Structures are given as structure tokens and as C-alpha cells.
């Protein structure tokens, strides 16, 4: 058995705009995505010497996870990632994927997408395929809209339906991030279905781009914006309450990540995020203090 361990980081959207609904029904996105320190640990093992009697991925790939909320079969998108790269590379052998889940599920933090990205990055290394991030991202976009970003990681301007990823070099400190997830999940598809673009206030993507490149915390806070809040905030009053609670606890700016329901608060430093999180822990079930991260996937063993 050969194994590799990958830290698969979650993301937040510092800004998320939907420009228009395309003729194919998808939404044209314009978002600044940012990896954060919070991560799952994905261990991928292959057995190159095993005698293989089938080319059926369902018999070759096994997924295990520590979370009861995540499917441990072909429904897991880490399975899909392994299947696609197996076919692409023509490498048919037993693969075991073990996901230690720390990222809240169905939370707007790209938990599944980053697991799929970890499998692509890990198998690329184990099989010595030498595929570049852009090639892995092309496979990733067949799996899910956030997978290409999760392969590049760090900070990026993301367009199309998620497949156009332009990495950005960010200056300055890793700001602190406090994540608060209420007990319920939100269906991404349902949020997009309910979006009325005539009603939304579009965020200033260019303003955020400039601010994050400069590492200017005040202007990053000023330019936080997510059009999907126009659907979720009126519908779930508790999200507005979480925003107020984060601000009262000391966060400088607050926003919903992706389609929610996670709300994040930004602080100038990681230490400040720990203090804010401590004030909210007894009020909300899932509160996490972390920082921005320069990496999406990290091979650690
Ligand atoms: P995004 O921000 O990319 O929209 P999300 O953070 O809102 O994603 P996920 O945590 O990826 O949502 O979970 C969405 C659904 O995908 C869950 O309901 C879960 O059953 C399913 N799923 C499949 N594979 C995974 C995985 N490896 N990790 C988490 N969820 C998974």
C-alpha cells in the first residue's frame, strides 16, 4: 500500500456576485474566493500490486468518513474524483479514501469540493502523473463548481460557473475568520432557484480585488458582499441575528459564505478571531476560529 495525506482546506467567498442567468440555466458567477485554515484531512491509499479482476470503479474505490452526515459510497464526491482520475490515467487498482471531517457539511464552505480536490491532487502525486493544476481543474470542473478553485486555493477571482479561476497574490497578514453555522443546512440549488436578479445589490468585485491584493483590512471589510443573502436573510431570521452577534462580539465585518448558512466574521488577526469565537460558543452549536490560508490543498505526509 502507498499512502498520501492531504489537508483539504475550506473556502469562504469574500465577495459573491451573480451577473446573469445563462441560456443553459446556470448562473454566471463573479466571486473572490479565499481558502481558510479550517481543513479536513484526506488520506488516500493505493495498492499497485493488487491483483485486479475488474475495471469497475465501484469495486475498486472505497470511501470512509468520520461524519455520519457524509455518504460513504459512490455518492461521495471524493469517490467521483477518484473514478474520473482513474479513467483519465488508466490506472485500475484498489483505492482507499479516508476523510476526517472537520468542515461543517452543507454549510457554504466547499467541504465536499475540497475533498474531491484533495483526491485529485493526492492521486496525481501517488501515480506521478505530473498533471498541472490547470489540468486537474479541468477534471475537477466535471465534479463540482467549487472544485477548480479548491485545487488552486489561496485567493482567486472566480468566474463562469466556477471553472475560470485566476489566482491572486495577496499581500499582508492572514486576517482572522470566525465561522458560525446554525444547526440547519441550506440547499444551494434552492437558493439559486429563488434568486431574483432584478432585486439584488451587486457587490463591488473590483473594490474587493484591489483591497485583498493590498491586504487592506478596512477596505476588505467595506467591500464584503454576497448577492445570495438577498434570498437567505429574509427567509432565515437567525442568520441576521448571527451577523449582529458576531459584530457585537468584536468582528469588524460579517458575511454569509456561498449559499450559506455559515456566516463568517473577519478580524484583523487570528488571535482576535479566537477571542470573538469564545464569546459565541455557548450560543451557537458550531463556532470555529481560523485565519485566511494561502493554500487550498497541502500534502503533509
Ligand atoms: P459548496 O460551498 O461547494 O456549495 P457546501 O459546503 O455547501 O458546498 P458540502 O459540505 O460540500 O456543501 O455538502 C453538500 C452535500 O454534498 C452534502 O449534503 C453531502 O451529503 C454531499 N457530499 C458528498 N460528498 C461529500 C463530502 N466528501 N463532504 C461533504 N459532503 C459531501
Shape: globular
Number of helices: 11
Bound molecules: adenosine-5'-triphosphate
Q: Radius of gyration, rounded?
A: 19 Å
Order of helices and strands: EEHEHEHHHEEEHHHEHHEEHEE
What is the helix content? Answer: 25-40%
Give the CA-CA distance, first to last residue: 14 Å
Structural class: alpha+beta
CATH architecture of the largest domain, by name, is: 2-Layer Sandwich
Mean pLDDT: 96
In total, how many domains does the architecture comprise?
2
SS elements, strand count: 12
* Strand composition percent: 25-35%
Briefly summarize what is shown.
Helices cover 34% and strands 29% of the residues. With 301 residues, the chain is an alpha+beta fold. Adenosine-5'-triphosphate binds at residues 70-71, 75-78, 99, 105-113, 115, 146, 188, 258-259.
Amino acid at each position: 500500500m502507498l499512502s498520501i495525506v492531504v489537508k483539504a482546506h475550506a473556502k469562504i467567498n469574500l465577495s459573491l456576485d451573480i451577473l446573469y442567468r445563462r441560456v443553459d440555466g446556470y448562473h454566471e458567477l463573479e466571486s473572490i474566493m479565499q481558502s481558510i485554515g479550517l481543513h479536513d484531512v484526506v488520506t488516500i491509499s493505493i495498492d499497485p500490486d493488487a491483483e485486479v479482476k475488474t475495471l469497475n470503479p465501484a469495486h475498486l474505490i472505497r470511501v470512509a468518513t468520520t461524519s455520519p452526515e457524509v455518504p460513504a459510497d459512490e455518492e461521495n464526491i471524493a469517490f467521483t474524483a477518484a473514478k474520473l482520475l482513474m479513467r483519465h490515467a488508466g490506472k485500475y487498482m484498489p483505492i482507499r479514501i479516508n476523510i476526517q471531517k472537520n468542515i461543517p457539511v452543507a454549510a457554504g464552505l466547499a467541504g465536499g469540493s475540497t475533498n474531491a480536490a484533495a483526491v485529485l491532487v493526492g492521486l496525481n502525486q501517488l501515480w506521478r502523473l505530473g498533471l498541472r493544476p490547470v489540468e486537474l481543474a479541468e477534471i475537477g470542473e466535471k465534479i463540482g463548481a467549487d472544485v477548480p478553485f479548491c485545487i488552486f486555493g489561496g485567493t482567486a477571482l472566480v468566474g463562469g460557473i466556477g471553472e475560470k479561476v485566476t489566482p491572486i497574490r495577496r499581500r499582508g497578514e492572514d486576517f482572522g475568520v470566525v465561522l458560525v453555522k446554525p444547526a440547519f443546512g441550506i440547499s444551494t440549488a434552492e437558493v439559486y432557484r429563488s434568486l431574483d436578479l432584478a432585486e439584488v445589490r451587486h457587490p463591488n468585485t473590483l473594490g474587493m480585488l484591489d483591497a485583498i491584493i493590498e491586504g487592506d483590512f478596512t477596505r476588505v471589510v467595506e467591500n464584503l458582499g454576497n448577492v445570495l443573502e438577498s434570498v437567505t436573510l429574509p427567509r432565515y431570521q437567525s442568520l441576521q441575528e448571527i451577523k449582529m452577534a458576531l459584530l457585537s462580539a468584536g468582528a469588524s465585518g460579517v458575511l454569509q459564505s456561498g449559499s450559506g448558512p455559515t456566516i463568517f466574521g473577519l478580524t484583523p488577526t487570528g488571535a482576535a478571531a479566537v477571542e470573538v469565537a469564545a464569546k459565541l460558543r455557548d450560543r451557537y452549536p458550531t463556532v470555529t476560529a481560523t485565519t485566511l490560508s494561502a493554500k487550498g490543498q497541502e500534502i503533509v505526509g
